[in-house]
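User: Let's play a game. I give you a shape written as tokens, and you guess the letters that built it. Ready? Here's round one.
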């Protein structure tokens, strides 16, 4: 029940608007687990993202392959928005019709996308912490790595 504010790199509670956690959390994890532990946490999040996407894809395929009305609705939508080079005529009607007929897909889609997005934000924060600790702890090696990357 939190909201992430990208400019502040902070999560806030949706109801109380109080700060739940910020990038300082990852500094504390870095101090506690070390670089290898933080890197392991990043890899764990990677595997969790892959597993979440695999689960979503299998569930999504089952829903679409079993439900003929969903298939027909998506085909109708595809025909309505083709060709892709022009503006869709009567777009609100075409999209609203497709959304209402495929309502049961969207909750699972939203859950999966939200989980993956949250894990990606966590990975981004971990990468920032690892990068800053690298620059602080070993300036010469970080500069050499930047030069090699360029």
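Assistant: Ready! My guess for every position:
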């Amino acid at each position: 029940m939190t909201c992430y504010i990208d400019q502040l790199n902070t999560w806030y509670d949706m109801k109380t608007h109080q700060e739940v956690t910020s990038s300082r959390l990852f500094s504390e994890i870095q101090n506690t687990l070390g670089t290898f532990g933080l890197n392991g946490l990043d890899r764990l999040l990677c595997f969790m993202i892959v597993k979440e996407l695999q689960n979503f894809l299998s569930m999504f395929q089952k829903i679409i392959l079993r439900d003929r009305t969903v298939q027909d609705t998506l085909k109708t939508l595809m025909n309505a928005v083709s060709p892709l080079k022009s503006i869709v005529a009567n777009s609100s009607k075409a999209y609203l019709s497709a959304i209402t007929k495929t309502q049961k897909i969207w909750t699972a889609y939203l859950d999966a996308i939200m989980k993956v997005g949250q894990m990606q934000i966590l990975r981004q924060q971990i990468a920032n912490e690892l990068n800053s600790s690298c620059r602080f702890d070993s300036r010469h090696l970080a500069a050499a790595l930047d030069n090699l990357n360029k």
